Amino acid sequence: MKLTDMRHILATRDIRLTKSLGQNFLHDGNQIRRIIAAAELTPADRVLEIGPGLGPLTEALLPACAEVLAIEKDQRLVEVLAERFAAEPRLRLLHADALAYLQENTLDWSAWKLVANLPYSVASPMLVELCLRSRGPQRVVATLQLEVAQRLMAAADTDDYGLLSLLIQIRYEPRGCFRIPASCFFPAPEIDSACVTLVRRETPLLTDAEITIFERLIRRGFSQRRKKLFKLLKEDWTEAALTAAFAVAKLAPEIRAEQVSLEQFASLARHLENTHHVHSRSLEQTVRR
User: Fold this and answer.
1) Any idea where the domains of the chain sit in the sequence?
2) Whole-number Cα distances in Å, 75 to 19, 53, 79, 80, 189
3) Phi–psi pair at 197, nearest 5 degrees
4) Residue 69 β-bridge partners
5) What CATH class has 208-288?
6) Class of domain 3-200 (CATH, top level)
7) Among residues 117, 6, 121, which one has the least CA distance to residue 54?
8) What's the pTM?
9) How does pLDDT run across 212-261, given as a tens digit for each residue?
10) What 3-state DSSP class applies to 94?
11) Is residue 279 pLDDT above 70, yes or no?
12) What is the pLDDT of residues 98-123, one digit of tens each?
């Protein structure tokens, strides 16, 4: 789909794009081919596409996979897509708010791939919603704001490292990122974008129970970035439990959250979750006596 095609459809239907919905449509064929390549699609793959817009990426996805579930919030665009792909049996089109749909439906996406140009306004919460769950997509290839992409890829003790980095990386490995200039979209956004590739970890770093502790840890740890991690965590755990956990993770009490690696946060979560179970069993034994 070329830029002239987009302009023609919008003009013919008198569709005025809504900035609040993040309606900036990728029209550059080279960038779309790079996205498809990053997805490493097979004829058996099922693909979730969020925010298909006028369907330029949808058009490239359909010949390469078995099924595309496209979720579009704008009814006007749903009508365009329904007409454009009326003869395409591999497309399932859903008119819905994608974030609300994901939050309300705890579906198993583990056999799916997410390939999408995500709406900027909800890209971060949408990725957290999908990637933090235990049955998230096997691969994520998402186009979003450059600054968000940098946070997704960031390592400890760098400017972009923080809560979002850890919420995604606990279950997913960052595999690649390429920049997409604003000129590749219509209308051109005010910022540059990037496409990231995330692959679900074959061997989970933590159990589901430990990830609950992990999320609690990092949300507390990054709630006040200037404060020392140990002091912040004392609001939720005893000093004795934290001292032991910090020793196992080889962390100094003076360290701040942004200096702690993913693996060290995972170590803290494992130890604190296990400590919780030990205490629970001890309490249970005491009550029985």
Assistant:
1) 3-200, 208-288
2) 15, 10, 6, 9, 22
3) -120, 125
4) 48, 92
5) mainly alpha
6) alpha beta
7) 6
8) 0.90
9) 999 999 999 999 988 999 999 999 999 999 999 999 999 999 999 999 99
10) strand
11) no
12) 999 999 988 999 999 999 999 888 89
